[in-house]
Amino acid sequence: MRYAVLSDVHGNLEALEAVLRDTRRGRLDACLCLGDTVGYGPDPNECAARIRALGGPVIAGNHDLAAAGVLDPSAFTPLARAAIEWTRDVLTQETRAWLATLPPRLDDPAFLAVHGSPRDPIEEYILDLPTSLAIFSDHAFSLCLVGHSHVPGAFILQADGAVSARRLPVGRGVRLARAARYIVNVGSVGQPRDGDPRASYLVLDTTARTITLRRLEYAVAATQEKMAARGLPTPLAERLAVGR
Ligand code: ZN
Predict the structure, then answer these.
(1) If you placed Cys at 216, which of 1, 18, 69, 242 could pair as Cys (CB 3.0 to 4.6 Å)?
(2) Backbone angles phi, psi at 114, to 5 degrees
(3) Span from the CA of 169 to the centroid of ligand 1 (angstroms)
(4) Average pLDDT value for residue range 38-55
(5) Which of the four pLDDT bands, split at 50, 70 and 90, describes residue 33?
(6) 140 in helix, strand or coil?
(7) Centroid of ligand 1 to alpha carbon of 35 (angstroms)
């Protein structure tokens, strides 16, 4: 089975369409979405409709639940909160109802999928080795797929207990060793934060046991113009050009 694993679309339709064109060329079997389909960007309803139409599993992110009124966004940064308030106002009843019912995790025989982390699926960031080690210790998965930080990469636990972090090469498959365990962040479609403004997603081949990071250019200026026209905070538009 070959999956496109997408996360953190954040209402960025231009980035999502670039990714979906790439997934069609790759003839993948299914699309898995790790949450935060809305928030920050100018097209939340359109992005939600595109993701729903793919028919694959979709799980909840913190912005999805905040936009749906299920999660209190008082812990969000002021800019994120401003964007969530705008998003709440423009969501259709249909999109809001869909977001409110998204599950927090997906347990597949081949992987565990969450937005943040297995111990706090909605809100925890896995950013460092000690956090990854605690999660490897407390949860029984061989591969955990996450988003949330918008920074693609992998934490790897070897059979001897050594844990390491690594960046993923773009466009080149990495084989998953049977003896090791992995936490893989697929990056963000609509708001990358690793210094590379290109949209990010992951191809997971559960038969060949490979992961391949893909990065796609898209019309950043078109998204920025929409954000300005809709009155979304300027820094949120500016960051798209630099991937921060
Ligand atoms: Zn996000």
Answers:
(1) 18
(2) -140, 165
(3) 22
(4) 97
(5) very high
(6) coil
(7) 8
**Structure-token match 């079997």, residue found:** 29
Pairing of strands 143-146, 111-114: parallel
Is the entire prediction scored with pTM above 0.90?
Answer: yes
What's the mean pLDDT in 56-72? 97
3-state secondary structure of 94: helix
Distance CA 243, CA 36 (A): 17
The span from the CA of 241 to the CA of 243, in Å, is 6
CA-closest candidate to residue 191, choices 4, 3, 42: 42
Q: What range defines the domain where residue 231 resides? A: 2-241
Instruction: Sort residue 65 into left (φ over 0), alpha (ψ -120 to 50) or beta.
Output: alpha
Number of domains in the chain: 1
CA of 208 to the centre of ligand 1 (A): 29
- Rounded CA-CA distance 182/133 in Å is 11
Residue 27: what pLDDT?
87
Which CATH number belongs to the domain containing residue 72 in this structure? 3.60.21.10
pLDDT per residue over 122-175, tens digit each?
999 999 999 999 999 999 999 999 999 999 999 999 999 999 999 999 999 999
User: CA–CA separation, 83 vs 96, rounded Å?
Assistant: 15
User: How confident is the model over 193-207, as a mean pLDDT?
Assistant: 97
Distance CA 203, CA 195 (A): 21
What's the CA-to-centroid distance between 36 and ligand 1, angstroms? 5
Q: Are 66 and 38 in contact (CB under 8 A)?
A: no
